[in-house]
C-alpha cells in the first residue's frame, strides 16, 4: 500500500467532515493487519472524562440508504418482483420472489461497491476510502484447500462451506439476473464472482449496525453501515471504548482510558469466539476466554409428542467453564422414559433445580448416569474427529510461519481445550455420583493381583517408576523412585498393545461388528461397545474361536487368573443381599437390565452380519 493512498484518504475523510484526534497517526501496519492508528502523544481519559478518538457524519457513510438514486431505484424495482407484483416473464426474475428484502438490499449494496471502485473509480465520491480497503482478506472464506483441510473436523469448516455455497448460489441466480437485465451497467468481467465475494467480505469485516428511522415511519431499523475512518482501527479485547450515534447524526468512538504515545489505538469488537473472529475478521485471540464450542444433539423420539419437542435440534454453546445447566437439564429430559417425564413435569425446572441443589442428581440416579454417559460419548466422539493432540498442535504452532495456519491451529487448540474441559467436568460428576451411590468392595487380594498385572504387562519400565496402590484413595499411582531428567523415557506403552477401538475393529470379531454397524444404523453399535465386546470375546470365548485375535492373551489370562469377577457387586449374590433396600442395589439392577438389553440388541445385529450363534458368548 502506498503512502500516497493513505494521505489521499486522510484528506478525503477531512473533507467529508470526519474527525480524527490530532495525536493519532494512520499508518500501514502489515498485510495481515492493514492500516491502523498509532499515537504520537499521550491521551488522558477516564470513565468520567471520555475523549473523542474518531467520528464521522452518517450522511457520508456507505449503506443502502446512501447509495446513488440509480441503485436505490434498483432496490425498489426488485421489491416489486419480490412482492410478486411484477408480471414480467424474465426467467431469472422468479429468483427474487418471496425473498427477504434485507438480503436483497445488501446484494445491491455489494454491486454498488463494485461499481464505485471498478467502474466509477476516481470519479466516485468514495474512491479514496474504497481504494484503501484490502483486495483480499485473511478471513476463513479465503482459505485455500490445505487450510480448509486443516479445519475439516471443526464447526467452522461447515460454516465456511455453507456461506460459500450460499454466496455462489446468490451470484449464479440474483446477480446473474441483474447482469442479464442490465448488461451495459453490469459488465461480467467487472462483476465477477471474485469481486462479489470481495464486496461481501469488505462489508462483513468492518460493518457497524446503525439505527435509522424505519422506512414505513414506525420505529427504527438496523442498517449495516461502513463508517470510513472509524472502521480503520483494529481490535483489542479489553480496550475501553464507547461508540454511539449522537443527536447530530454523527457516529462517535470515544476512549474511557488513558493511552500512551507509541501505542496502537484500538477498537473493541466485543466478546466473540475465535470462530467468529476468524470467519468475519481474519484473526484469532490466543487463549480467548470467550471461545465457544457449538454442540448439537439429535435424539430420536419415542412417540410422545410432548417429549419429542425436547429431543430435536438441541444446540448449545460451551465455554471452558462448567457445563451449562440448560444443556444438562435438556439431556436429562431427553433420557427420560415417558413415565419419568410425566412425573418430572409436575414441577418447573426452576423448582427441580432448587429441590436438588444439595444432591448429586436432578431427577434420579439412573437418569443422571444416562445423561452423563451420553454426554461423555458425544465429547469422546468429537475428540476422535481430530487426528492430532493438543500437544502436537502446540508443537506445530511453535514452528508454523503461515499466518492463516497459525490462526487455524490456535482456533483448533481452543476447541480441543473446551472438549477436554467438558470431559473433565463429566468425569468429576460421574465420580461423585458413583462414589456416593456405589459400595466399594475392599479386597486387598484383588488390589494386589491387579497391581502385579500392571507391573508386568505391556510396560517397558526404566526402573525409576513404581506402581503402588493407595487404599485411602482406592486408586493406583505411578511414583518416581529416582530423579527423572526432562525428556528422559521412563515408561513405554506400545500402541499395538493398547485395548482400544482401533485394535477391536481390526480383530476378526471387528470385521463382523463393522458390517453389522453399517447394516443396522439404529443399533447401539458405537465404539465403546466395540471395545467391550472385543474384551468379552477375547476373555470368554473358546480358545479356538475364529473370532479371537489373541493379541492380548497374556493380559486377559492374568486378569482371569487373578481377578474374581464373581465377587463384584454386579455378580455377587452375597453382596447384593447386603445391599438390599439401598439405592446402590437399585442402580446395580437397573444397570444390569440396561446392559442385558444392549447385549441382546448387539448380539442380534452380529448374527444378522453372519456370526455363528454358536460362536457367541452369552450374557
Name its key features.
619 residues, alpha+beta, set domain protein methyltransferase, domain 1, set domain protein methyltransferase, domain 2, 5 domains, four-stranded antiparallel beta sheet, four-stranded mixed beta sheet, 22 helices, 13% strand
Overall description:
The chain is α+β, with helices and mostly antiparallel strands and 619 residues long. The protein has five domains: 110 residues, set domain protein methyltransferase, domain 1 (Alpha-Beta Complex); 125 residues, no CATH class; 145 residues, set domain protein methyltransferase, domain 2, CATH 3.90.1420; 53 residues, no CATH class; 115 residues, no CATH class. The protein has a four-stranded antiparallel beta sheet with strand order 1-4-9-8, with no helix packed on it. Strands 2-3-10-7 form a four-stranded mixed beta sheet. Helix 3 crosses helix 7. The longest helix has 35 residues. About 6% of the residues have low confidence.
The proportion of residues forming helix, as a percent range, comes to 40-55%
Overall shape: it is elongated
> Unreliable stretches, pLDDT < 50, 5 or more residues?
85-99, 438-461
Mean pLDDT: 79
Q: Number of folding domains?
A: 5
What's the CATH architecture of the largest domain?
Alpha-Beta Complex
Q: Using the coordinates above, name the CATH class of the largest domain.
A: Alpha Beta
Span between termini: 73 Å
Kindly provide the radius of gyration, computed on alpha-carbon positions and rounded to a whole number of angstroms: 32 Å
The biggest beta sheet, please? 4 strands, antiparallel
If strands are numbered along the chain, what order do they take across the biggest sheet? 1-4-9-8
Q: Count of DSSP E strands?
A: 16
GO molecular function, one term: protein-lysine N-methyltransferase activity
InterPro entries: Rubisco_LSMT_subst-bd, Rubisco_LSMT_subst-bd_sf, Set10/Efm1_SET, SET_dom_sf, SETD3_SETD6_MTase
Keywords: Methyltransferase, S-adenosyl-L-methionine, Transferase
Domain Rubisco LSMT substrate-binding: 316-419
Amino acid at each position: 500500500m502506498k503512502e500516497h493512498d493513505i494521505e489521499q484518504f486522510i484528506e478525503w475523510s477531512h473533507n467529508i467532515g470526519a474527525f480524527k484526534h490530532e495525536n493519532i497517526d494512520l499508518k500501514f501496519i502489515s498485510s495481515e493487519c492493514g492500516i491502523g492508528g498509532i499515537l504520537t502523544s499521550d491521551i488522558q481519559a477516564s470513565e468520567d472524562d471520555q475523549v473523542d478518538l474518531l467520528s464521522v457524519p452518517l450522511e457520508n457513510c456507505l449503506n443502502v440508504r446512501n447509495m446513488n438514486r440509480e441503485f436505490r431505484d434498483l432496490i425498489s424495482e426488485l421489491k416489486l418482483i419480490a412482492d410478486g407484483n411484477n408480471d414480467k416473464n424474465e426467467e431469472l426474475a422468479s429468483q427474487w420472489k418471496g425473498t427477504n428484502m434485507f438480503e436483497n438490499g445488501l446484494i445491491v449494496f455489494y454491486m454498488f461497491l463494485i461499481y464505485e471502485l471498478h467502474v466509477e473509480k476516481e470519479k466516485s465520491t468514495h474512491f479514496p476510502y474504497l481504494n484503501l480497503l484490502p483486495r483480499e482478506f485473511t478471513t476463513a472464506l479465503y482459505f485455500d484447500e490445505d487450510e480448509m483441510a486443516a479445519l475439516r473436523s471443526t464447526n467452522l469448516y461447515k460454516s465456511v462451506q455453507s456461506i460459500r455455497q450460499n454466496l455462489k448460489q446468490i451470484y449464479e441466480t440474483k446477480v446473474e439476473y441483474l447482469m442479464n437485465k442490465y448488461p451495459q451497467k453490469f459488465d461480467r468481467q467487472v462483476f465477477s464472482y471474485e469481486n462479489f465475494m470481495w464486496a461481501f467480505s469488505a462489508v462483513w469485516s468492518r460493518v457497524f449496525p446503525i439505527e435509522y428511522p424505519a422506512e414505513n415511519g414506525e420505529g427504527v431499523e438496523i442498517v449495516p453501515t461502513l463508517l470510513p475512518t472509524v472502521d480503520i482501527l483494529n481490535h483489542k479485547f479489553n480496550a475501553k471504548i464507547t461508540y454511539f450515534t449522537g443527536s447530530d447524526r454523527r457516529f462517535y468512538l470515544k476512549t474511557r482510558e488513558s493511552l500512551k504515545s507509541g501505542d496502537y489505538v484500538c477498537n473493541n469488537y466485543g466478546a466473540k469466539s475465535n470462530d467468529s473472529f476468524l470467519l468475519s475478521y481474519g484473526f484469532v485471540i490466543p487463549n480467548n476466554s470467550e471461545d465457544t464450542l457449538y454442540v448439537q444433539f439429535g435424539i430420536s423420539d419415542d412417540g410422545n409428542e410432548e417429549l419429542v419437542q425436547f429431543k430435536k435440534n438441541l444446540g448449545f454453546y460451551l465455554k471452558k467453564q462448567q457445563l451449562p445447566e440448560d444443556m444438562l437439564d435438556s439431556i436429562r429430559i431427553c433420557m427420560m422414559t415417558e413415565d419419568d417425564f410425566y412425573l418430572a413435569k409436575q414441577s418447573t425446572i426452576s423448582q427441580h433445580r432448587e429441590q436438588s441443589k444439595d444432591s448429586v442428581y436432578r431427577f434420579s440416579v439412573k437418569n443422571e448416569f444416562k445423561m452423563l454417559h451420553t454426554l461423555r460419548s458425544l465429547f469422546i466422539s468429537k475428540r476422535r474427529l481430530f487426528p492430532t493432540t493438543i500437544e502436537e498442535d502446540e508443537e506445530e504452532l511453535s514452528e508454523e510461519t503461515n499466518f492463516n495456519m497459525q490462526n487455524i491451529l490456535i482456533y483448533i487448540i481452543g476447541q480441543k481445550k473446551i472438549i477436554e474441559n467438558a470431559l473433565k467436568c463429566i468425569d468429576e460428576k460421574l465420580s461423585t455420583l458413583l462414589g456416593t451411590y456405589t459400595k466399594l468392595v475392599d479386597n486387598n487380594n484383588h488390589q494386589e493381583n491387579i497391581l502385579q498385572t500392571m507391573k508386568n504387562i505391556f510396560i517397558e519400565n526404566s526402573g525409576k517408576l513404581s506402581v503402588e496402590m493407595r487404599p485411602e484413595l482406592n486408586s493406583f499411582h505411578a511414583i518416581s523412585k529416582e530423579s527423572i531428567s526432562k525428556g528422559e523415557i521412563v515408561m513405554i506403552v506400545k500402541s499395538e498393545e493398547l485395548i482400544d477401538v482401533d485394535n477391536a475393529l481390526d480383530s476378526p470379531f471387528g470385521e463382523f461388528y463393522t458390517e453389522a454397524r453399517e447394516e443396522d444404523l439404529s443399533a447401539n453399535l458405537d465404539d465403546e461397545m466395540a471395545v467391550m465386546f472385543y474384551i468379552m470375546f477375547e476373555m470368554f470365548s473358546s480358545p479356538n474361536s475364529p473370532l479371537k485375535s489373541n493379541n492380548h492373551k497374556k493380559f486377559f489370562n492374568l486378569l482371569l487368573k487373578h481377578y474374581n469377577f464373581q465377587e463384584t457387586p454386579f455378580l455377587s449374590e452375597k453382596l447384593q443381599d447386603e445391599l438390599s433396600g439401598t439405592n446402590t442395589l437399585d442402580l446395580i439392577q437397573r444397570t444390569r437390565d440396561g446392559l442385558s438389553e444392549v447385549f441382546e440388541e448387539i448380539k442380534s445385529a452380529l448374527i444378522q452380519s453372519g456370526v455363528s450363534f454358536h460362536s457367541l458368548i452369552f450374557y
